[in-house]
Amino acid sequence: MTDFIIAGIGNPGAEHEGQRHNVGFWAIDKLAKRHNINLKSSTMAVMGKGKIGESEVLLIKPRTFVNSSGKAVGPALKMENVPASNLIVVYDDLDLAPGRLRMRPKGGDGGHNGLKSISAAAGTHEYGRVRVGVGRPYHQGVPTWDPEIVVRYVLQDPPKDQRELIEEALERTADAIEVVFSRGWERAMDEANRNEPAPPAASAKGP
Question: What amino acid positions are annotated as catalytic residues?
């Protein structure tokens, strides 16, 4: 019996592997390696079952591209008979600097199309999420929300220094998810915030 589903948002294909938008996939790979969970590819997702602590979990990386993540996550919830409240989604966040981490047991989609798709498929916003910062791109010296620039930015590989900060955040993501299962969300959020590094001197700048 599966207790929890942990889904990482990203885009399938070797050409997308190192891109900022695939932070959720990196988190799933890290959890799978840490807990010896074998991931296998199917039509809709790359998935693997195993144990994290005393909890039976299903790790999932949708192969449906970010904006259609719900097409894989929704059926997985039904197939495993897991309530949405026991779903945790890990994804990239533009409004957090690289290396920053925020988590909560429920909330809105924050404009993230992957979350919109998952919420529609699950029929609720009442599921856990872990936001991993990738920074917001800059244009002419100021942060930008221009859709073309943002899309170009999230579909780029982060530079080495940012990648290292993100990798550190993913280690803390794995730690925090383990705490969710053993001691609950409040304790996990406290520990994630307490262990967070000091903010960088300058924000990440993109194109």
Answer: 21
